[in-house]
Amino acid sequence: MQRWCGICAYDGTSFDGWQSQPSGNGIQDILGKRLSQIFQRKTVAIGSGRTDAGVHARCQVFHFDGDWPHEENALLQALSCGCRGAIRVHGVVQVLNTFHARFSAIGKRYSYAMERGFADPFNCRYRWSLGNGNVDTDAMAATAEIFLGTNDFANFANKNGCGGTIRTLHRSDLTVDGNLITYTTEGTGYLYRMVRRIVGAIVEVGRGKADANFLKKLLKNPSEPPNSHLQSAPAEGLFLERPFYGEEIDRLIFGGKE
């Protein structure tokens, strides 16, 4: 049985997240249905990670197994024509059977988009509109940096996961371009809703409702009860930018693209 790696992008607005759902409206459901039609057997698309309902991906990686006697490009075309417009498969490549889209990943990059004020109708599904009132973007940028390095993120994630709450972030920064504010992070792994909780905390600092020093205290003392003002940012601004697998596999999958 051949193992294949696929790359897709999707607008998560109208889906129930990546993971298969009883409704059949998970992105995994859509891809799996099409793959099963192609291979004439039940075929599952295993993703690099789960994204929640409403969360988007510019580069989600998934793997699946199936014998395909034709060119890779023909498989890409067959898979692409069976997906609705909000999902675009833009790459398929054969990989070793030991490759696993989730467990072979050594890191991920996420971004989160915010709009100072209110986003226009063409962007509101992809940005968190911060609404009326000023936000101190300098304070927000400084706050983003405190999450760098290895920390215990127990207070910045939903506590229904397993495997511990210590994670390492190699990147955590904020950029401002007019009214667009973008948070970007790269790390070895993320807890459930961790990025959205971090962004929510950063915004609260920008609004003057939370103190950066208290956030530092939450990282150093995970048993510290979190500030009741801390919030989870809404799903629409979050993008899975890409997973990382190491130079050799990344070159095979992505062709050297960042």
What topology does this entry show?
Blueprint: E1 3-10, H1 27-39, E2 46-47, E3 56-65, H2 72-80, E4 87-95, E5 107-115, E6 128-129, H3 137-145, E7 149-152, E8 166-177, E9 180-187, H4 194-206, H5 212-220, E10 238-244, H6 247-254
Parallel strand pairs: 3-10, 5-6
Antiparallel strand pairs: 1-3, 1-4, 2-3, 5-9, 5-10, 7-8, 8-9
Helix pairs in contact: 3-4
Question: How would you describe what is shown here?
Answer:
- The chain is of the alpha+beta class and 258 residues long.
- It has 2 domains: 3-104, 2-Layer Sandwich (Alpha-Beta Plaits); 108-240, Pseudouridine synthase I, catalytic domain, C-terminal subdomain (Alpha-Beta Plaits, 2-Layer Sandwich).
- Helices cover 24% and strands 28% of the residues.
- The chain has 6 helices and 10 strands.
- Strands 1, 2, 3, 4, 5, 6, 7, 8, 9 and 10 form a 10-stranded mixed sheet that branches.
- The longest helix has 13 residues, at 27-39.
- The radius of gyration is 19 Å and the shape is globular.
- The chain starts with a strand and ends with a helix.
- The mean pLDDT is 93.
